[in-house]
Amino acid sequence: MALTLRDGLARCPLIAILRGVRPEEAEAVTEALAEHGIAIVEVPLNSPDPLASIARLSARFGERLLIGAGTVMREAEVAAVAEAGGRLIVTPHAAAEVVRAAKRRGMVACPGMFTPTEAFAMLDAGADALKLFPAEASRPAALRALRAVLPAGTAVLPVGGIEAGTMRPWLEAGAAGFGIGSSIYRPGDTPAQAGAKAAALVAALRG
């Protein structure tokens, strides 16, 4: 049975954002991350040949990891990701039409939002979780206030500037997990380097 978003976050509340990864290295990097517990991986569509990376990752890891795309801007891109085997759609913005397109295809939709108005609009469109972006322009107190009015159980994932030393206040404010970019992978990182970063982040969560 394919991994759900809820189960993936329960296994490890970190979404690895492999911005800039190349198709020929995507599998080795993802394997290194998975060895340290990472269960959800997104390849931003502004990476080199992202659909090829998503196709490779979906073919190899699709049964045990949740694989998808980030920086999805348009409905047509949702279709392309689905055809590549991806099951997760992450946007940087509050795009109801992208969320609805993902849900029509049975995909997981995690749209970006920053305000209560955007948060509720994305939930109305069918979002499975909310990406609080850019998190470095917000603060945990804002998340705590937002969660007080969101439906119970809504998963909010801060993204942007998150690293090992900044996670704890967000978790205490109710973050369900995080999207992690350069703190887990930078273009040119070896699998070993990405794995070491993942290990440090997971250790910080447990600490």
Please outline what is shown here.
This protein has 207 residues and is an alpha/beta fold. It has helices spanning 5-11, 23-34, 50-61, 75-83, 96-104, 116-125, 140-147, 167-172, 191-206, and strands at 14-17, 40-44, 66-70, 88-90, 108-110, 112-113, 130-132, 156-158, 178-180.
Description:
The chain has 207 residues and is α/β, with parallel strands linked by helices. The chain has a single domain (5-206), classed as Aldolase class I (TIM Barrel, Alpha-Beta Barrel), CATH 3.20.20. It is 43% helix and 15% strand. The chain has helices at residues 5-11, 23-34, 50-61, 75-83, 96-104, 116-125, 140-147, 167-172, 191-206, and strands spanning 14-17, 40-44, 66-70, 88-90, 108-110, 112-113, 130-132, 156-158, 178-180. It has a six-stranded parallel sheet. Strands 6-7-8 form a three-stranded parallel sheet, with helices on one face. Strand 3, helix 4 and strand 4 (88-90) form a beta-alpha-beta unit. Helix 2 crosses helix 3, helix 2 runs parallel beside helix 9 and helix 5 (96-104) packs parallel to helix 6. The radius of gyration is 15 Å and the shape is globular. The model has no long low-confidence stretch (mean pLDDT 97).
